[in-house]
């Protein structure tokens, strides 16, 4: 039987960790939301609701299985759902993907710091990489504690930008419909030509890059109910952040044309002080996500805080610093993220099949025990 007690502080921490994990450079700079949601105009808000429905089930399941199975290595979840052979394929694909997105996030860090502070891109990339490495070396439990606090702060500042957009709409009620009509003509890259599919695809993207992390978070919870609640709360909070950012990007669409970091342009327009705070927040967002992705990559090869772990983490950071400093950020997001989303669809089918089979087995056991009685 599951325990009914829930530690509210732990739920917030684990939900915040999930939000912080997802709010990396792609999200905090506005590029992800722009390409997956805002380019669809006001239908992007409906796409966010599709994301909420799909991702709520997936997070609820992964947090729960992480607590129930308590995998020694979080990548074991792939073999749990897909079997030994296909599970190994997914393990190595996931490791490669998470590391590739780690490099993408470093590129986003360089672009952000360069745009706001005028510091050379490679220096910004290097600073974030070194900070992320230092956090990674502390281990997974300490990382969850750190980024679990950062997550709610990120959402709060995204909310400020969104609320400013909503206030602007009250004065110019036709602004959203005007922006929706013009979006396809402004030259923005789009993840998909169909708004509903974009929402679902983003959910599968979020799934594919966070499977081992969600399993680790679930394992850290006190019980299954606490784990599942944290997964749902984290997904809901992240969806609210998506919707608020869509509104802001639509309202301020003229400002963000041709910009690598749309959120920074919007925040600067609202207030130079907010722009300064937001630039720091984006850097913190990127740092926390980069540290998470690096740790999840290294966890495949060695346990936390071992000599082997430290050496691999340092080598992978150095490689990421080099490539993150020279690759174009927006093109990487447009190519890499949709591919990750498509690959997650097959894994979701395996998840659903396994969960249904487990429930069927539990029901059969209950019937057999009742017959014996």
TrEMBL record:
The keyword RNA-binding does not apply. Signal peptide: none annotated. The chain crosses the membrane at residues 46-65, 90-113, 119-140, 152-175, 195-215, 227-253, 273-297, 309-329, 335-353. InterPro entries: YkvI-like (IPR038728). Keywords: Membrane, Transmembrane, Transmembrane helix. It comes from the Bacteria. This is Transporter. It comes from Clostridium thailandense.
């Amino acid at each position: 039987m599951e325990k009914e007690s829930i530690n509210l502080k732990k739920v917030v921490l684990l939900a915040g960790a999930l939000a912080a994990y997802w709010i990396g450079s792609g999200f905090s700079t506005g590029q992800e939301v722009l390409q997956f949601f805002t380019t669809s105009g006001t239908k992007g808000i409906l796409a966010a609701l599709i994301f909420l429905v799909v991702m709520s089930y997936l997070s609820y399941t992964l947090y729960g299985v992480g607590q129930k199975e308590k995998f020694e290595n979080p990548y074991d979840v792939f073999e749990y759902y897909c079997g030994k052979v296909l599970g190994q394929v997914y393990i190595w694909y996931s490791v490669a993907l998470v590391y590739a997105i780690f490099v993408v996030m470093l590129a986003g860090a360089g672009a952000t710091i360069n745009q706001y502070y005028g510091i050379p891109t490679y220096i910004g990339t290097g600073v974030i990489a070194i900070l992320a490495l230092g956090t990674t070396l502390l281990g997974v439990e300490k990382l969850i504690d750190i980024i679990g606090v950062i997550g709610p702060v990120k959402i709060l500042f995204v909310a400020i930008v969104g609320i400013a957009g909503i206030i602007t709409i009250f004065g110019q009620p036709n602004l959203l419909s005007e922006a929706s009509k013009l979006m396809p003509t402004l030259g923005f890259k789009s993840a998909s030509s169909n708004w509903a599919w974009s929402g679902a695809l983003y959910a599968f993207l979020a799934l594919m890059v966070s499977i081992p992390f969600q399993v680790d978070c679930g394992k850290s919870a006190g019980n299954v109910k606490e784990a599942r609640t944290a997964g749902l709360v984290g997904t809901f909070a992240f969806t609210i952040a998506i919707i608020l950012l869509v509104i802001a990007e639509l309202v301020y669409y003229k400002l963000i044309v041709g910009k690598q970091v749309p959120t920074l342009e919007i925040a600067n327009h609202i207030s130079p002080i907010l722009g300064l705070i937001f630039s720091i927040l984006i850097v913190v967002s990127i740092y926390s996500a980069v540290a998470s992705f690096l740790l999840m990559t290294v966890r495949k090869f060695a346990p936390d805080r071992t000599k082997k772990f430290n050496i691999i983490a340092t080598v992978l950071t150095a490689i990421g610093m080099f490539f993150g400093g020279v690759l174009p950020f927006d093109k990487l997001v447009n190519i890499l993220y949709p591919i990750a989303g498509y690959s997650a669809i097959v894994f979701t089918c395996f998840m659903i099949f396994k969960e249904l089979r487990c429930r069927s087995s539990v029901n059969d056991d209950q019937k057999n025990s009742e017959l014996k009685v």
